[in-house]
Write a structure and sequence with these properties.
The protein is α/β, with parallel strands linked by helices and 318 residues long. The chain is built from 7 helices and 13 strands. 22% of the residues lie in helices and 25% in strands. Strand 4 and strand 5 form a beta hairpin. The radius of gyration is 20 Å and the shape is globular.
């Protein structure tokens, strides 16, 4: 048995350093409570761009550009060490951490953001980086599409962990790719919520016969910082639940064992046993005896989407 923790707390919108501090404190709290796997929400650092659902691209173009510039400046560049504090927290507390973030690559110009989820092991090492394959609706004006280089499950001390982000979980072939990787703990960081989303988490658990950790985002009007551009225009009601969260834990038989944590800020804990996964697949193993590879085949191109390939020729000077 392993204790897992899903952190359902708001970020400090558009502030990477302050949000990292929230994440590090939350990891310390969850680890002290005995958690060995700790999950943080979709694009937690430095926050999900919730304003995109409230702005009109043409009418609000100037404000959209201002907010995007702030988001870009506070995004995470893995190569620059922006996530070092989180990795160090995982190492110090000897826990596995799954965290969503807005990612950029400044060495490539830094102009494109990716909706990314990372897995960090108890040694503080980055075990996987998965970029959301298809941004959802207005997210396409914020995030670029990812590739499949991180579409995989990785071994951790708590079990074999894989993750899909928000509506990627409605992509049957992406789900199947994780099932075929032998995922035992399926993590779904999301900005979605509600009964429909909870039923999706239960369906995935039943389909994949795996543990499903639905990591919800939570945000109230009062959580929006005072210096947020057009704060009162976009989020005028401090009592509004902009997103209610709905974090949930589902077992390999589709039974909810913790949550949904709705309109509540805190940490959702659950005890999970990955030894239940293989026996649950005795009757239904969609990547095994139910896969029919003689009829169906899935090909996944894991080659990273690199925009420039350089072949240098030696230069001879006379």
């Amino acid at each position: 048995m392993n204790k897992i923790a899903i952190i359902q707390r708001p970020p400090v919108l558009l502030d990477r350093s302050a949000t990292l501090a929230v994440a590090v404190d939350s990891i310390g709290e969850a680890a002290a409570a005995g958690a060995s796997l700790i999950v943080l929400p979709e694009t937690f650092i430095p926050g999900y761009p919730s304003w995109i659902w409230r702005l009109a691209p043409g009418r609000d173009g100037a404000l959209t550009s201002l907010l995007h510039a702030r988001l870009l400046a506070n995004a995470v560049d893995l190569a620059s060490g922006d996530l070092d504090l989180l990795c160090e927290a995982a190492r110090v507390h000897r826990v596995t951490v799954v965290c969503g973030l807005n990612e950029c690559e400044r060495s490539r110009g830094g102009g494109t953001l990716y909706n990314t989820v990372v897995v960090i092991d108890p040694d503080g090492k980055l075990r996987n980086r998965h970029r959301k394959l298809m941004p959802t609706n207005p997210e396409r004006m914020v995030h670029g599409p990812g590739d499949a280089s991180g579409l995989r499950a990785v071994d951790t001390p708590v079990g074999r962990v894989g993750a899909l982000i928000c509506w990627e979980n409605y992509m049957p072939l992406a789900r199947y790719a994780l099932y075929a990787e032998g995922v035992e703990i399926y993590v779904a960081p999301t900005y979605d919520s509600g009964d429909g989303w909870i039923s999706t988490m239960r369906h995935i658990a039943l389909e994949g016969r795996c543990w499903v950790l639905g990591s919800g985002s939570v945000l109230r009007g009062s959580d929006v910082p005072e210096d947020f551009p057009s704060h009162l225009e976009l989020f005028p009601d401090p009592e509004e639940w902009i997103n209610p969260g709905d974090s949930v834990v589902v077992d390999p038989q589709g039974k909810i064992v913790a949550g949904p944590m709705r309109r509540e800020i805190g940490i959702l804990y659950a005890e999970i046993d990955t030894a239940r996964v293989a026996p649950s697949r005795r009757t239904l193993d969609v990547a095994g005896h139910y896969s029919r590879p003689d009829v169906f085949q899935l090909h996944v191109r894991r080659t990273p989407a690199i925009p420039l390939h350089v072949v240098d020729e030696p230069i001879f000077l006379s």
